[in-house]
Every structure is written in C-alpha cells, then in structure tokens.
UniProtKB/TrEMBL annotation:
The keyword ATP-binding does not apply. Gene3D superfamilies: SIR2/SIRT2 'Small Domain, TPP-binding domain. It comes from Mucor saturninus. GO terms for cellular component: nucleus. This is Deacetylase sirtuin-type domain-containing protein. The lineage of its organism: Eukaryota, Fungi, Fungi incertae sedis, Mucoromycota, Mucoromycotina.
Length: 387
C-alpha cells in the first residue's frame, strides 16, 4: 500500500493525496472499475452480509428456519421445500427495495468516466442493475434481479410485480415456455414433461455463472487493451475468481509508469493486497467521489498535478538507471557479495539481467516502491501548494 486517504481525517490533511489521485483519474485513458454492495448502500439497498432488516422480515414469515447472510444466496437452499420458500420471500423483499432505488453519486461518477470515453468496463458484483438505469458498460458478475430465469430450460423473463407478489407468498412461478411446451404435448397426446419454475437470474454461491466463459474472454480482452487505472469500490474482496482478476489487472497496470490501482471501501483490505493497491481510500465511496469531482472540475490543477507526478516518476526512473549502471560497472567480487546483506540495489542488479518484459515490470514496481519512500514528501508538499 502506498497512500492511505481516510475520509474521516481533516480535509487539509488528506487534500494533497486526494488531488494526486484525482489527477491520475482525470488523465486516465483506459480505466477498469470493479464494484460491490458498498456503492449501492446510499440508494437504500443494504449489503446482504449485514442486512439484518431483510433477514428479520424473512424470519417473521418463516420463524422455524434460521438462515443468515450468505446462506440466503446459496444454491443448496434448493434442496429443501421450506428453505426454497424462505429464499423466495427474501427475493421478493430484495426486489421491492431495488425497484425503489436510484443510482448513487458513485454510479454517476462511473457514468461521467463513460461519457468522457475513459471507461474500459465496469465489473460489478451487484445484482441491483443500477448501472442499467444509466448507460455504463457493465458486466454483472453475479447476474441481475431485473430478470427471472427458468430452473429447467434457462429461459429468461422480466422480473415483474406479478412475479414479486408470488415470490412474497413463497411460491415459485411456473415457466411460461415449459408450460406452453407441456400444453402442446398434451394436445398431441404425448407424454408429459417436467415444468420448470422461475427464480431470480442471479448467480448463487456454489453455482457456476451461466455466462462464465464469455466473461472470462471479456476479461482477457480488457487486459490486452492495457488499462492504466483500476478503481475497486465498495467490496470486501471475498470472491476468489474476482480476486484473481483484480491481481492480474493490477500487475498489468503497474507495468506502465504512472499506472494506478485504487481501493475505496469503508474497511481496509486484507494484508494480501498490500502490493496491489497504490491508494487506499477508507470511507464512503459517495463522499470520496464528491471530493474527487471537485478536484477534477479544476482542469488546470489536474494538468499541473499530472505533470508533476510524471516528473516524479521520471526522476525516480533516471535515479534507478544511474544506480543500475553503477552496479553493472562494479567488478563482481565473490567475498563482498557474500558479506553484503540483501538490499534493494542487489535486487535491481539482478532485475537488469532479466528478459525485457520482465525487466520493465520489475523496474516499474521498484519505481513505485521507491516513489513511496523517497518522493512522497516532496510530491505531497507541492500538491499542497498547488491547491
Ligand atoms: Zn422453462
């Protein structure tokens, strides 16, 4: 982790870092955004893992069933008639909340990046389809509550008020397509087949995404376009496949000097993310967006800051080159290298012998690392003056 911006801190303390981060965003050409429940909270849709209100409501209707958090989104629910009813009641309450919700300031921020042609794609874990109310190119990693799908033939239909009413009563509506096939077979005097039921078109735990392959291909194609920025917002990063994608994307972004990877959430990420995120913004995503929008409205400040940050990276790059040259000129002496403790210098020497692509990667990582230590004070002080 390089820089921490705790929104709860006094604004003058975090202002220089907010300016720097805003400049990275303002000048980005190919941004990836990854979102989770945290960005929809202000629209009235709770984070399901802590949605006590919803669970209490379900509990009232099904007092004999104890299900909490993740369990209500688990495919194993479908093994038992009682838990199926519980699932449908929960989905009805969820749909009711979602249908009243509007996109948040954070959604509008993503829309603005889209309008400016800066957004490569938004990957969301949210099933509230608030991105669709706007015009954000989005991949819904966990499906959508906008539709229902047949458990048998996979036909999709709009999730209507009528379906919500049936769900609330704990009923699973029959699939219209399956029913019409069945009616036709009966008319022809053929053997009856099973009729599927409808459920929300969301991906449950212990279930594969029906479009998993397509999503995988899109991710590969997005990474080939060499994104220069990634903002991960409102997620506690628990899903293994998504974690892998974020780490892959971060590696590619860090190959480029000036590439930036940002985490925005109410709570800090686990230690495994220490070398993935350059900026960690702790707090509400809407609050951060408001601060960032203010900065980005000042085009002159953004250009000046971006130029200064570029110079910082370049200076550091030049310093690294000089050090590498010095090291390469030194005669290799076995005794000395044995005695010398492991240092950043010796790392750089070995990196210079690597293949070109690996060397670039290693070098940019070194640059970012050193940038934290040596340039932080100078850069943040200058930013303070510019504001
Ligand atoms: Zn069907």
């Amino acid at each position: 982790m390089k820089y921490k911006i705790a929104i709860s801190e006094p604004s003058e303390a975090i202002d220089p870092l907010v300016t720097n981060l805003s400049a990275y965003i303002a000048k980005s050409k190919r941004a990836l955004i990854v979102t989770g429940a945290g960005i929809s909270c202000s629209s009235g849709i709770p984070d399901f893992r802590s949605a006590d209100g919803l669970y209490n409501l379900v509990k009232k209707k099904h007092p004999d069933i104890v299900l909490r958090g993740q369990e209500l989104f688990d495919a194993t629910l479908f093994r038992n008639e009682k838990t199926i009813q519980c699932f449908y009641t929960f989905m009805a309450e969820l749909r009711s909340l979602i249908s009243k919700a509007n996109p948040t300031i954070t959604h509008e921020f993503i829309q603005t990046l889209t309008n400016k042609g800066q957004l490569l794609r938004c990957y969301t874990q949210n099933i509230d389809f608030l991105e669709e109310d706007l015009d954000i190119p989005t991949i819904q990693l966990h499906g959508t509550m906008k539709e229902v799908k047949c458990t048998l033939c996979s036909s999709n239909y709009e999730f209507t008020d009528a379906y919500e009413k049936m769900f609330r009563a704990g009923e699973a509506p029959p699939c219209p397509r399956c029913v019409s096939i069945d009616v036709e077979r009966t008319r022809l005097g053929k053997r009856q087949l099973a009729v599927g039921t409808l459920r929300p078109a969301i991906v449950l735990y212990n279930e594969n995404h029906p479009n998993g392959d397509t999503i995988g291909q899109l991710q590969v194609s997005d990474l080939k376009k060499r994104p220069d920025l990634m903002i991960v917002m409102g997620t506690s990063l628990k899903i293994p496949a998504l974690k892998k994608f974020i780490k892959q994307a971060a590696r590619i972004i860090h190959e480029k000097p000036g590439g930036c990877v940002v985490f925005v959430n109410r709570t800090s990420p686990a230690k495994e993310w220490d070398n993935v995120f350059d900026y960690e913004v702790l707090g509400d995503s809407d609050e951060w967006v408001k601060m960032t929008n203010k900065k980005m409205a000042n085009e002159k400040l953004m250009t000046q800051t971006a130029n200064r940050l570029r110079r910082c990276v370049k200076e550091q790059d030049d310093d690294d080159d000089e050090e590498e040259e010095k090291e390469n000129k030194k005669p290799a002496r076995k005794t000395k290298s044995k005695k010398a403790p492991p240092s950043s210098v010796s790392t750089k020497t070995s990196s210079s012998k690597r293949a070109p692509l690996k060397r670039t990667l290693s070098k940019s990582q070194t640059t970012l690392q050193d940038f934290r230590v040596t340039k932080r004070r100078a850069c943040t002080q200058k930013a303070g003056k510019a504001v």
